[in-house]
Amino acid sequence: MRPSIFVLILCAISAAVAPARAEFPVKPIKLIIPFGAGGGSDGFARVIQAAIEKHELLPMPLVVVNADGASGAVGTRQVLAANPDGYTILQIHQEMFAASVSGRVEYGPDDLEPIIQAARSCEFLAVHKSSSFADLQQLLDYAKDNPGKLKQAGDIGSSSHFLSAKLMSLSGVRWAIVPTGGTSKRFASLLGGFTDLALMSSPWLERGKNDLRPLAALGEERFPEAPDLPTATELGFDVSGCLIRRYWAPKGTPREVVDTIADAIEAAMTTDEVKAHLANSREESSVLRGEKLKEAISAEYQEYVEVLPLVKETSGK
Amino acid sequence: MLSAYAHVFTDGLIWIIIGTSVGIFIGSIPGLSGAMVISLALPMTYFMSGDNALLLMVSMYVGATTGGLISATLMRMPGTEAAIMSTLDGYPMAARGEPARALGLGVLASFVGGMLAWLVLTLLSPQLSLVAVRFGPYEIFAMAVVALTLIAAVSRGSLINGLLAAILGAIVSMPGIDPINGALRLTFGFHQIDNGFSLLPVLLGSLVLGQVLVDCGAPRQATAPIAGQARAAIRLSDMVRYRWTFIRSSAIGTWIGILPGVGGMTASIASYSIEKAISSSPERFGKGAEEGILASETANNAGTIGALVPLITLGIPGSVITAILLGAMVVHNLNPGPLLFVENPHIAYIIIAGALASNIAMFAIMWVSTPLLGRLMYVDKAYLLPPIIVFCFLGALSVSNRLFDAGAMLAFAVLGYLMHKARIPAGPFIIAYILTPMAETSLRSGLVIYEGSFLPLLTRPVSAVFLAIAVLSVVYSLASEWRAYKRKAG
């Protein structure tokens, strides 16, 4: 009896003391993906995980855990509740801002510690090939002259809805948002003739080239694969719409720990594996850290706050 | 095309066999789902060629749908949601001493449904997918209404109890994020139900653990096996005898499978209910009718393969699993989408040939194992129930990586048990739980598209026909209920 108690106590002491002294990380890091397996977030996270492991960028592996539900809120809550020791981190895009600004959740980006921004996937605005709208201005003119007639396939309350609202606010016209779901469902809705326009993700430039007519790129620059497609900014609407993949830790995670993880992810971004994945999924590297990242986040969040009234106005009753 | 088939039946064959066997095994265990194992397999396939990765995943997908019938038949616990309708007649037939025969019918039906749907996939994919996208929100709504009214047909004899179960199911499906205004509803401030109650906790609780509780209370004694039935479990003569059931159920299953977002579960509900409605002896249904097993299993496998049609022709995944398959294609840089057939026909044919090969492999594996599996019916439940409970917990925890779903599952287990005691059927409960959100979302999307007008429901021919069927179905069940009541009274 006595020796085993002794061993137990020893273990307890070493467990309590060791992490403080040892270099972070001494055990695997849980990376929570608040979306389902097989999606864009999941695919990106798994490539980062594989690159970190293959190139030994961290002494311990990342473990990807899918915690899908409530547009990312279920997984985000798990990170908010975790110890701020760097062993539980989150990868999420602006869906968090959308949930926070619209009041579905009581937390916001300030309740987490941003680690690093890694990549982004920019969208474009498209209509069906058979549509009579040849450019963005024609579409907006139609919406102005025919209130309530123009319909966009989208997701109510999601980050793409905020993006649409931003475009509405800049152009001064309104249209209806029909809840259809993700990009492939939007594509089906355009194809079926039920809706007039949709925001599509960059892979659909190639995939949908026989069926879709892109009207505006929503990145800051033109898509390399569609050099003739003007950006919305060039057309006079200062809006940029990219899903930005960022990593977050619970508030209060030590600076050195955040830096260690950020270094590893930044190094992973330069590996051939990650580069190949970005090329396959038509995403681009967009690394941002430290104060610059915090500024980018708060500016973006502010934009979400500003267009919230329009999002509410174009949500169903 | 030929090179794709050649690959599948040579180098790819090993992945087909592994995938199909794993799929059947996982599918047969309540708690483990095809989606779970395929999402676990996805990162492993990073190291395989794109062809083999897709073959492995497609065959897991086909195997898992079939595997669900094993536990549905032998234990009245659906291994996958698509097998729920198979419990209705599969279990009674197994319990009366014909477990191998009940399994054999299910296996044959799965095979025939898969093959007929495969023919459609091969010959008509591009055309059908273009028809499917014309199926808009109001059409889907009207179809869901028909399926909901068919609940009455499934719960005949106690229409009130069936409706009560359906209302309960609808209520359980309501909490969460409102699909149309994006706000939370009916969560009462509990963030744990921000996402509502997920399918796995509801299904595993009410249908599987609820059944475990029932079994613990009153151990079921299956009738001893009828001699010789194991040897003739799969009779090819059934293919001729029930040819119309096969053709009807495959057509229904394939079509519903092609519609994005409507799965094998809906396919088997529709097929079973229609089979019962047109049968000359509907009273046999629910008591071990051959056509009941065949209708459900033909349709769910046809739906499984049918769901590959929009995936390969348009890049539109209709279910969780096909969405993961699409993700796998992106990972392997196979650029899925409407141009797959044009730019990368090899991959499209790999999927089509893989579906064929895994359907054949499934039939071979099940042919050999059916007599053995039939004996499971006579294994003491004390050995079978504990692992099932463990797997149910694993399943619930896998949903969102949290304990809440396990707690919800236990609550639904108690509900399932109480419903059993009160003779409230579980089928309508789960059917309404699945169909209500589909009906609601499509109706409200339709209202946005048609600017608040319900009229297109009646002016669009497809939805009008469906709604007429729904009205007829309600009138028919009320009338027969009334006749039954008069007979009893008089």
Brief rundown of the structure:
Chain A is built from eleven helices and ten strands. Chain A has helices at residues 2-21, 40-54, 73-80, 95-101, 136-145, 159-171, 183-191, 203-207, 255-269, 272-280, 290-313; strands at residues 29-33, 62-66, 88-92, 112-128, 151-154, 176-179, 197-201, 212-217, 242-250, 284-288.
Describe the protein.
The complex is a heterodimer of chains A (about 325) and B (about 500). With about 325 residues, chain A is an alpha/beta fold. Chain A is about 45% helix and about 20% strand. In chain A, β5 (about 150-155), α6 (about 160-170) and β6 (about 175-180) form a beta-alpha-beta unit. Chain A is globular and about 65 Å long. Chain B is mainly α and about 500 residues long. Chain B has 22 helices and two strands. Chain B is globular and about 70 Å long. The mean pLDDT of chain B is about 90. The interface between A and B is large, with 62 and 58 residues.
Beta-strand content estimate of chain B: under 5%
| Major beta sheet, strand line-up of chain B | 1-2
Q: First CA to last CA of chain A: what distance?
A: 67 Å
Which two chains form the greatest contact, residue counts included?
Answer: A-B, 62 and 58 residues
What gross morphology of chain A would you assign? globular
How many domains of chain A? The number is 2
How do the SSEs of chain B run, as a string of H and E?
A: HHHHHHHHEEHHHHHHHHHHHHHH
Give the rounded overall mean pLDDT of chain A: 92
Give the SSE layout.
The complex is a heterodimer of chains A (317) and B (490).
Chain A: H1 2-21, E1 29-33, H2 40-54, E2 62-66, H3 73-80, E3 88-92, H4 95-101, E4 112-128, H5 136-145, E5 151-154, H6 159-171, E6 176-179, H7 183-191, E7 197-201, H8 203-207, E8 212-217, E9 242-250, H9 255-269, H10 272-280, E10 284-288, H11 290-313
Parallel strand pairs in A: 1-2, 1-3, 5-6, 5-7
Antiparallel strand pairs in A: 3-9, 4-7, 4-8, 4-9, 4-10
Helix pairs in contact in A: 2-10, 6-11
Chain B: H1 2-8, H2 13-28, H3 34-44, H4 50-75, H5 86-95, H6 99-133, H7 137-154, H8 159-173, E1 176-177, E2 184-185, H9 199-217, H10 237-241, H11 243-258, H12 264-278, H13 290-306, H14 308-314, H15 320-331, H16 340-343, H17 345-375, H18 381-400, H19 404-421, H20 426-449, H21 456-459, H22 461-489
Antiparallel strand pairs in B: 1-2
